[in-house]
Write a structure and sequence with these properties.
Elements lengths: L5 H13 L4 E4 L7 H10 L2 E4 L25
Parallel strand pairs: 1-2
Helix pairs in contact: 1-2
């Protein structure tokens, strides 16, 4: 939805409302457009924004325990 026009976002959110859906999951920031929030309010749709979560390949090193109280790396 990052490249959708305002009219297309309106149509997509409206289709959710017509299908009696009351929530849209905005997974990992798929859309950051203020229009999405505006149309969700217009049609009574709850937006569930997911936070970015690190993947194992780019997250903290599990062998590094220095950040935990009372723990030390082995």
């Amino acid at each position: 939805m990052k490249r959708d026009t305002r009219a297309r976002i309106d149509a997509k959110v409206h289709l959710h409302a017509l299908a009696h859906m009351n929530m849209i999951r905005n997974w990992v920031g798929q859309s950051t457009s203020p229009d999405l929030y505006e149309f969700a309010d217009k049609y009574g749709i709850l937006l569930w924004d997911e936070f970015f979560q690190p993947n194992p390949s780019d997250g903290p090193n599990p062998t590094d325990l220095a950040h935990l109280p009372g723990q030390r790396p082995r």
